[in-house]
Structure prediction request, 317 residues.
Amino acid sequence: MIVTITLNAALSVSYEARQVTWDVVNQVSGVRYRAGGRGVAVARVLHTFGHEVVAAGLAGGVAGEMIRADLARSAIPTEFTWIGRESRRVLDVRDAAVGRRLGFSEPGPYITTEELGRFAVDYLRLLAGATAVVLCGSLPDGMPPEIYGTLATYAAEAGVPAILDAGGSALRHGAARRPALIIPGTDGAAGTDLDGVADSAGDGAVPDGLDPQALVAGGAGAVALLSDHAVRVVTADGQWLARLPAAARPPWPRDALVAGLVPGVLLGWSWPDRLRHAVALGASAAASGEVDLAAYEQLVAEVAVEPPGELPDEASA
Prediction:
């Protein structure tokens, strides 16, 4: 069982309007509610691809109930620790007339010490039956930045590999505890578009202030650097860069790429095989988390995996 942890889960609310005009009341022609947050999105992709997964973390209020209900409709088990305040909402407004979108993200709820303690108990219980844990996303108010470090330590003590997908201080604290895989991201909404496309930083460029080689030398299993059309991995045995041919470069949902890297950690695949699976899965997944299995089967054979130094200069074009 793979456990995904979303400490700042969100209810995604999508409004469709025929036209959006400032300073007037705009009529909405369609409304959609969907469970969101990085760990939730990763759980959705893993479930779609047939993995046994549980979505856990923190949720509360009416928004939390709607998050849990939406995942239940998708047959994804949940083990959220309940909090007293409302889970955040992320609003996506679509203007059908011009084909543009505008997003708004509420701040996360404040988490009390008592709620954090209950979550720790629930997390330790889930680790007892877990084959891997995926720690994803930003932190809500009141959450200490070292929380991912603590959760990674608990996982290591339980013999469960941890995959960390985070940014900012949460990444730094978590990376120091040597998880099986580190996936640097952002600590907020910046760097992703409204469909959760991976950070567009070139072919797996290194974020400012991050030294992947130092992290690996310090005991982390590997560091994966994601972009919207490539994945670069730094390991103790060397580096790998995976991409699709220039003719097939869709914007890949970040959460699908993260989900695609999880099975290889569990099954001990070679890095070329892990990267072929992750890139093909990312390229064949919709933002909704649904995977086109026929497209996946075709794309696996097209993924190019090479040490970065052997790629032609135009690879980043």
